[in-house]
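Entry 14. Ran structure prediction on the chain below.
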Amino acid sequence: MSKWDKLIVTLGLIAVALFVYVLATEQMQASYVSSIVRPASENVSEFNDLYGVISRGGLVDVQFAEMTSTDPEDYYFIDYTLSLASICPFPAKWATMNLVPVEGDIVVVQSSPVTIGPFVSGIVTGTLLTTNPDAERLGWIEYYVLGRLKTAVVNI
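Output, structure tokens:
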């Protein structure tokens, strides 16, 4: 084997190793940071704004259930904060929080999608409107690495 052949084989092996590394590290770790329960009756303006959007059908694609009451006393906002830790050499783009609804959950209002840089942690937030503030939920963060949709699951 000539010197050039050895160089080409070595470069090919390095490229394969880098490809495997990227595939192995693009899955990121999600963790629960905090949740703050706020009665909607103490946030009437926010509740009325959200109720207006829901009643006009503005959230029909992401709404879990119909609102059975228009009284803010029946509802709670839960502000969730989750962390996404990257060990990938590429950024996680368009990261958003989602959750598996339980009985009483109405809708999750997403914060603006965030980009998590390579080898760092970032914060992803969302607000849930619910009648059941004490239930345990399963959440996940959706994000894109190199254009591929990925998810990281977390108990919230």
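The mean pLDDT is 88. Will compare against last week's run tomorrow.
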